Amino acid sequence: MILARMCGRYTFRDPVAIASALEALGVKNEAAPMAKRYNVAPTQSMPVVITGEHGLTCLSMKWGIVPFFARKERKPMQLINARSETVTSKPTFRQSVQKRRCIVPCDGFFEWKRFPDGTKTPFFIRMKNDAPFWIAGIYEAASADIPAGYALLTTGPNELMASIHDRMPAILDSPAAQAWLKPAPLTQEQVTSFCESHPASQMRADEVSRIVNSARNDVPECVASIL
Q1: Which of 111, 140, 195, 222 is flagged as catalytic?
Q2: Per-residue model confidence (pLDDT) at position 78
Q3: Candidates 7, 58, 102, 106; catalytic one
């Protein structure tokens, strides 16, 4: 079972640009070869940046954290998001945010706008200049029977996102990403400061096809505007 309030899909459309951004950040890449992805979904393995023994390191992890209380279940729940406003106090996340912070490289994400009649319309959101960006995250190391997994932090919406959804990913610029990855304790106030909503003036959102609703569709048409 996958539990999430928002941000259940994102993109990795330009691996070359993302690799260049990782290099500029001072990251050693140990992840699997990066491929173009137009519809990254939970449970899939993707590049994540952590602070390792030899500095900032990019490696592959599964999207979704199995909480400690569910690790013995036959089909344990997987948490793909964590609210930045409460992450230091929730028992499920408070150790991770203090000891296992990460950033998730991407270049866009999807969100669905709900209408009064119950229908939902997908929107593709990214930077106006299409540049890669980092989402603040937390992770859990692998155990004997559960692979390493990560979750994205979310925050309140900016003016652009408010018309689509009441949450958005906690987007970090490069200096903030480097600071987020420093191995030091954080207060809830510091986490909240890191995770302020990204300026709407730098972002755009376009309605896209409902083919993105299925994780089996991982094609350029997922991000093509239909207006």
Answers
A1: 111
A2: 86
A3: 7
Question: 10-residue block means of pLDDT along the chain (227 residues)?
Answer: 66 96 92 91 96 93 84 75 96 94 98 92 97 97 88 97 96 97 96 97 98 97 93
First vs last Cα of the chain: how many Å apart?
34
Going by DSSP bridges, is the β-strand pair 81-83/149-155 parallel, antiparallel, or unpaired? parallel
- The answer to whether residue 111 is catalytic is yes
Q: Could you please report the per-residue DSSP string of 110-174?
A: EEEEE-TTS-EEEEEEEETT---EEEEEEEE---SSS--EEEEEEE---HHHHTT-S-EE-EE-H
The reported pLDDT for the residue numbered 71 is 65
Class in CATH terms, 2-217: alpha beta
The verdict on whether 106 is a catalytic residue reads no
3-class secondary structure, 11? strand
User: Residue 160 carries which side chain, given as an amino acid letter?
Assistant: L
Q: What is the pLDDT of residue 164?
A: 96
Hey, what are 36's tokens? 């173009």
Which H, E and C letters describe 184-202, residue by residue? CCCCHHHHHHHCCCCCHHH
- Domain boundaries, given as residue ranges, for the chain: 2-217
Q: What is the pLDDT of residue 1?
A: 47
CB 99 within 8 A of CB 23: no
